[in-house]
Fold:
Amino acid sequence: MIPLRDTIPSRTIPYVNYLLIVVNVLVFIYELSWGGQLPRLLGGYGLIPARFFVLHASHKVSPVIVYLPFISYMFFHGGWLHLLGNMLYLWIFGDNIEDRLGHGCYLIFYLVCGLAAAVVHLLTNTNSVVPTIGASGAIAGVMGAYLMLYPRARVVTLLPIFFFFYIVEIPAFFFLGFWFLLQLVQGFSTLASHAPVYGGIAWWAHIGGFLFGQLSVFLLLKRRRDKTKGGSVW
Structure:
C-alpha cells in the first residue's frame, strides 16, 4: 500500500513540516558528496547502540559525541528510496499534526518522538554495531498522533493487486493500524531470532516512536489549551 494523500485539509501552512523535508533532502545530498567515505560519516552521526554504551562508560569522550547521534541519526538516510518513502509519509501525515499542535510545538514533538524511537531501539538492540539512520522513528510518532487525532480520516492509497493498480480510500485507523501491526510482527520476530535489524529496518524504533506519539500528543494539546486559557499561546 502506497499512500498518496489524506482527506483532511490543513488550515495553516505547515512551515515546519516543509522545513523538515528540505533539511532531510539537503542532508542526503551532503551524504552523496562523501562518496566512498560515507560509512565514516554515518559511523559518527548514526546511532550505534554498542558504540554508545562504550562511549558512555568512558570519561574521556565529549558528551556531544556521545549524545549527538540521538538527534542526528534521524536526518540521514540509506538511499533515495529510504529518503523518498519517509518524506512521503511525513508530507501526508505531518501537516495535520503541525496544524493541531502549532509550529513550535510540532517541531519539539517531532524531535522528541525521534529521540524516544532511538531510546527504544537502543534498549532492544544493545549489542548492535549497525548504524541506525532515518527519520522513520520520528515520523512513526507523527503517524501515531494522527491515528489518535484523525481516526476517521481517509487515506487515498495506491493498492497493487497482482499486475493491476487501484486507487482507493482507506480509513486512517485501518491504514495506520495495519502498518503498526506489521511493525509489531517484525519487531517480535527479530527478538525471537536474536537479529537486531532485519532487512535493514529498525522495527523497534518504529514501534517506540509510534507509541510515544500516541501517548504524548494529548498531553501537548492539553498544555496548549491550558496556555490559551491562561492568556498565552504556543
Remarks:
- The CA atoms of residues 51 and 129 lie 7 Å apart.
- The mean pLDDT is 89.
- The chain has one domain: 2-229.
